[in-house]
Amino acid sequence: MGENTYGYIRVSSTDQNEDRQRIALRKRAVPKENIYMDKQSGKDFNRPQYKKLVRRLRTGDLLYVLSIDRLGRDYEEIQNQWRVLTKEIGVDICVIDMPLLDTRSGKDLMGTFIADLVLQILSFVAESERTNIRQRQAEGIEAARARGVRFGRPPRALPENYHSVYQRWRTGDITGVAAARECGMPLSTFRYRARIYESAKRQDHT
User: Fold this and answer.
1) Entry pTM
2) What's the CATH code, domain 2-136?
3) Which residue among 12, 41, 67, 105 is the active-site one?
4) Where are the domains of the chain?
5) Which end of the chain is more exposed for a tag (fewer CB within 10 A), N or C?
């Protein structure tokens, strides 16, 4: 049985649950050489190790995954992978976090119906949860921006002569083009930094 038992781990580049998945598979006596793992970024769903695993699976093999969302990134993909694995290849799947999703038990019509129903509910919940997380992240970013939090690279430090050049520009002694040239920056950047500089000065005086 050992050589026909497999495990699959999927983690994002920032995910911290790789160890949890490995421990769960180890407790099921999955051979180390039969564990496949993909690491991916949030924007990339290329899974070379999963594809390699699927090519190796044969009818009657057993595949362990910790949770249902390891099989896909959305409802449709989870459903499709479950169908490919259980119907087309004919492997058994055990979802460790959800004992009801263990195709080794309940092979009769009722058992299959219950497993399929639970799968649909869980894969839908998994996709909804990811959608809600993305929505909360977007709302959090928008709220932070409204508070004045800036994202991206921090602005470069102002050149040492910026203060004196700015003062001459404000009093009309030099043009904006000349001021930008003396500071070694484009005119648009000089004016943008001037607005920030003026805002900071106003805050200092309040």
Assistant:
1) 0.56
2) 3.40.50.1390
3) 12
4) 2-136, 162-204
5) C
